[in-house]
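hey m, so remember when u said the tokens were messed up on ur end? i reran from scratch. heres the input so u can diff it against urs
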Amino acid sequence: MNIKRFLLSSVVGFIFMAIYEMLVHNIALIGVYDLTPQLWRTPEEMNIALMMAGYALMTLLLVCLFAKQMNVRTAKQGAAAGLAVGLPLALAGAMSYVWMPISITLAACWFVATLVKVLIIGVITGSLYRDF
């Protein structure tokens, strides 16, 4: 494994994920979350450090999976790998609809947002981890 490419892909992926999650959850979906305030922590109750640690760990695991196990070396391969990994992850998140009193709209948004996020992490990995 090329450590420099792995670290670069991980750092860029983490920055993307942190910004993407903020845009999706704090801006795009805020109105949907406001419909069920009893389900969510207030901003003061959220543990931002733990959230960032989770983003970092998720990014490291995805980059490792894409680069090492799936041998992603191009953006196209990254998109395919991101789709393959993103579909079950997105479905798992959307399945929250079954046991949480959330709207089908929110579940669908989580599905799409997760799929897009993982697909883009795959493209980032393929673009930065490519063979020269």
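this time it looks ok to me. The two ends are 14 Å apart (CA to CA). if urs says something different then somethings off w ur setup not the seq
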